[in-house]
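Thread: Newbie trying to understand structure tokens

Hi all, I'm a second-year student working on a class project, and my supervisor (Dr. K.) asked me to get a predicted structure for one chain before our next meeting. I've only ever worked with sequences, so writing a 3D structure as a token string is new to me. If someone could post the tokens and maybe explain what I'm looking at, I'd be very grateful. Here's the chain:
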Amino acid sequence: MKISRGLAALTLILFFQTQLLAEYLYKDEIISNPKFTKQVGILGAELYEKTGISLRLMMLKELPNGLSIAEYEKKLLKDFKEPTVLLTFSEMNSKVDLIANEKSLYKYFNKKQVLSPVASTAQAFAMAVIFARSWDDFNEMRGDSGGTILPLLANKAKPGEVLGKYSAAMFNGYYDVAQQIAVSKNVSLENASGNANKNMFFAFKIIFYGFLLYALYLYIKNRKAMKRKLNESK
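---
Reply by user tm_fold:
Sure, no problem. This is what the structure looks like when written as tokens:
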């Protein structure tokens, strides 16, 4: 059966386009969703074109050979010649990490903020009030907020919605890092549409208010326990 030149050319174009998109979703052992791959690929390609920095996402089922996530990332980064930032998630190990192959790249994004387990400043303040054991602890805890991955990953998902939670959390983090790099480089990302993240920010609100209610419950519970102990000691 003969294949026309036009069809052959189209097939070749689609092949290279798929390869380009897969370049930024460097490894995916979990999601396997063409839409997710395309979303990451388009944003990654634009970021690289405008900044010269390659932001790659890796979704692992489990870390190989007993390696830590940092060890595995450093091993992979040796293969990349261009400035590269690697965002990695390992499902079975429950690990997320963000690493760059050049120290100078860390000035373009805030690793601590992206990987913070706390989403909002109000939530961080509430945690500091309840759990801080000293003034130094309080100041450190209240400043640790703005996380765009872990708060979503920590959210419980119904059966059948786990992969959606993973993809939402990791794309949210990928989006956050891409935007920070773009702003640092004084460029605008046309494909980084804020509308795509409305559902994610809505999820943040649910997590935030849920945490505040839980924190209030713990506070009241602890106050009652303290009063009971005081009454028993009298």
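A couple of things are worth pointing out once you decode it. Residues 24-233 form a domain with the Diaminopimelate Epimerase; Chain A, domain 1 fold (CATH 3.10.310.50). DSSP finds nine helices and four strands in the chain. Feel free to ask follow-ups in this thread.
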